[in-house]
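Hi team,

Below is the intake form for tRNA-dihydrouridine(16/17) synthase [NAD(P)(+)]-like from Sinocyclocheilus grahami. Please confirm the fields before the structure is written into the shared record.

FORM ID: S-0412
PROTEIN: tRNA-dihydrouridine(16/17) synthase [NAD(P)(+)]-like
ORGANISM: Sinocyclocheilus grahami
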Amino acid sequence: MAKPRGFEFWRSTLKGARYVVAPMVEQSELAWRLLSRRHGAELCYTPMLHAQVFVRDANYRRENLYNEVNQEDRPLITQFCANDPEVFIQAALLTQDYCDAIDLNLGCPQMIAKRGHYGVFLQDEWDLLEKMIKLADEKLSVPITCKIRVFPEIDKTVKYAKMLEKAGCQLLTIHGRTKDQKGASTGIASWKHIKAVREAVNIPVFANGNIQHLSDVQLCMEETGVQGVMSAEGNLHNPALFEGRSPPVWEMAEEYLGVVEKHPPCSLSYVRAHIFKLWHHTLQIHQDLREELAKAKNVAGIAEVNRQLKQRCQQEMAKDESEWTRTGLPFPHWICQPYVRPPPKDPNTENGQRASETKAVSVKRALEDSDAPNDSLSKNKQKKKARNPHKNFCPELKPKYIKCEQCGNPKGNKCVFNLCRGCCKRKAFKEVADCLGAGLLFRDVLWKYTNTLMDIFTRTLFELYFYYIYCLPK
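The structure came back. Fields below:
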């Protein structure tokens, strides 16, 4: 039976999904997906999985997909990052029976993606991407989809999308930001780019970016004409976003913790990260509980912190409204609402003033020395200084290390060969030698082993001689 393609795939397999939860590393696990589906999400993605690790490591496969199979969690798309067609296909073949489509991540802009050469850092390698998608379209029993970022130029973005469609992509998700729009430089996503792509291709398109409320979803669909809208950060701060509700934070937190207990196992780091996101605004006020949440050792400990936050917020609700409306947020801090990043700073301004108007002159920070007051150190170094008052940060006073004769790493202080531990271990093993400084006793162990064998051999000969003399019949 031929696999569904394009709009048929979107209508039949994905059931015409419009409200989509994005693939998020260590954040869109089974428990969170089930919670989001309860509150209006119609399609979810797994977290981004590393194709090479997925092929190599059976435990990785079990922990990130096989152990999370649940009939309530459909339709589901599994996302991979990859840069090798053969590895990508191997990973996808191991996955296709557990999901409804395979997505290739071409949108991750983080430094780890740059080092691993995947995500948005493949967007200029069109020949490679065409080969990967064509091969996936031919070999897999489920459709192949892609999630991309835009180029600064709309025309180039459209050509890019059409190339992916021609190669075999059956659904395209477009994050309306460039690869440089991240962190403090995130800025606003361009719906114009998304609209241009939607009008140029003949496959379903999902939009991603600028989604904080249900009204944003509706506005985006009207302006761009896309089939669906994907949310990442908006969903993390308010899982009921697609319902158009902004419930109290503790309501969502308690429900999420209940899902975690019902569908184990779930990594404690995932759970803690979700609670941090949900309680983000409140934890700016109750910072003592922020530390308690970070120290929690299990789900019960996290639930206790959630209970304390709920109790404090309910006490605030009983007070005069003016007491809890000073936060500058559109809703009280205990209501689920998005975190709005501050806009990128104008490089020509400083604290709202033109650089030419500021009196202070920008100069480089002086080199730190160990006798300087703590204020001259960075925050990170001040923390280290607090832990170890005798630590110095002056480069001239730092000890100079003698280099290993073979690899250039610092040599062991007591190594008889003037090598680092790794090189010393290899040399001692090869030459059956000892290095007391590194605690390597290959020669000594061999000598003891040889003596033991000689003792056993001598004793055996003596026993045979004794048996021959005294036990054998004459």
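SUMMARY LINE: The longest strand covers residues 76-81.

Thanks, M.
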